[in-house]
Amino acid sequence: MSLILILGSNSFAGSSLVNYLLNKDLKVIGISRSNEKNKSELIYKNNKNLKNYQFYKININKDLQKLKNLINKKKPNIIIDFLGQGMVAESWCNPEQWFTTNVLSKIKLFNFLSNYKFLKKYIRISTPEVYGSSQNLLKENSTYNPSTPYAVTHMTIDTYLNIIFEKSKFPAIIMRFSNFYGESQPFYRIIPKTIISVINKKKLPLHGKGLSLRSFIYIDDFCAAIFKGIKKGKIGETYNVSSNEVFSIAEIVKIICLKMNYNFNYLIKYQKDRPSKDFRYFMNNNKAKKKLGWNNKISFSEGLDRTIKWYYKNLKNFKNIKYGYIHRK
Predict the structure, then answer these.
(1) Alpha-carbon span 276 to 148, nearest angstrom
(2) What's the topology of domain 185-214+245-280+299-318?
(3) For the chain, percent helix, then strand, then coil, each to nearest 5?
(4) Which class is domain 3-180+216-241?
(5) Which residue blocks in 170-248 are alpha helix, DSSP H?
(6) Where exactly are the structural domains of the chain?
(7) Residue 279 CB neighbour total at 10 angstroms
(8) Burial state string for 185-207 with b = 16 or more CB within 10 A and e = fewer than 16
(9) Most confidently predicted of 30-44, 187-201, 261-275
(10) Which residues contact 198 (CB under 8 A, 6 or more apart)?
(11) What angle do CA 237, 239, 244 make, to 5 degrees?
(12) What are phi and psi of 256, to 5 degrees?
């Protein structure tokens, strides 16, 4: 049985994948720089197979040797990498922090991992922001054109993984995902923020009139794609994973308002757009469908219904949770 190590396991994506893999009775190790959160924020906490999960608090910038020791001891076959400084607009404030975590510390880790044969796949979760805003349908080999420090760091580490695969066959696979959403996503993301704003009847800031276009994947389909990558992904390859449903941010807010029987015009408060925000990027998902056998099964409408229902049911557990993004160095 494979042992899977998840870097960034306390993130929404990481914790959702932990839960997904535990449901398949796999053994999982989670690494995050923060302590484990409560059961509402970490959905795997209620998993019947939680005995198969081990968590370690490790900051890759401060405790890299601790991480190396753990990897050397546990010898995971698969590593899934969600780890890094997120948030696009905030990366302009202290870009050096994004480069330290997303690039420099990762390169040190790769240099260490390159000495071990027990590692069969290192699956790096990337972002379409590396392509920048584009009117064209983006393929895996489309030209990079990042527009923020955040995007530059992702472009840099993706490029580095490609060259160390070419040099030494480092077992890297890059999976580049469009936006994803679902139960337990942090409140500062647009879909849960809209839902909570409607429930609390509070104004929702909408940057740039919400005209930018995005594709969204429900979290179960997101996790299923990574599992396909574990099973069928070929090292040295990149896979774009995206839904074919595309909406403007304003359209998404309107759809949620309709589902929750709330007036869109009462909810929104227009604000100036964020600096260097990409207007659109549509990724061609043919390779993931053909080579991995992946296809999203949950429509955007159904996924929203599930997400809204979950937040109504669990809102009482979030009384002391901050609704805004909190930056950690």
Answers:
(1) 6
(2) UDP-galactose 4-epimerase; domain 1 (3.90.25)
(3) 45, 20, 40
(4) alpha beta
(5) 190-200, 219-232
(6) 3-180+216-241, 185-214+245-280+299-318
(7) 15
(8) bbbeebbbbbbbbbeeeeebebb
(9) 187-201
(10) 256, 257, 260, 262, 267
(11) 165
(12) -65, -40
Q: Tell me the two tokens of residue 12.
A: 């929404």
What global pTM score does this model have? 0.92
Hunting for tokens 């922001």 — which residue is that? 129
Assess contact for 252 and 317: CB atoms under 8 A: no
Write out the E strands in 201-290. Answer: 204-207, 213-218, 238-241, 246-248, 268-271, 282-283
Element (H, E) at 177: strand 172-177
Token pair 């609390």 in the structure block, residue: 200
**Joined tokens for residue 53:** 């999960």
pLDDT digits (tens, 9 = 90+) for 270-311: 887 665 566 677 889 999 999 999 999 999 999 999 999 998
The span from the CA of 329 to the CA of 34, in Å, is 11
Residue at 314: amino acid letter: N
Q: At what angle do helices 105-113 and 64-74 cross, to 10 degrees?
A: 30
Judge whether 241 and 178 are in contact, CB under 8 Å.
Answer: yes
Helix, strand or coil for residue 74?
A: helix
| Structure tokens belonging to residue 297 | 């099964």
DSSP result, 18-60: HHHHHHTT-EEEEEESS----TTTSGGGG-TTGGGEEEEE--T
Q: What six digits make up the tokens of 81?
A: 């990498």
Is residue 6 within 8 A of residue 31, CB to CB? The reply is: yes
Asked if 98 contacts 91 with a C-beta cutoff of 8 angstroms, the reply is yes
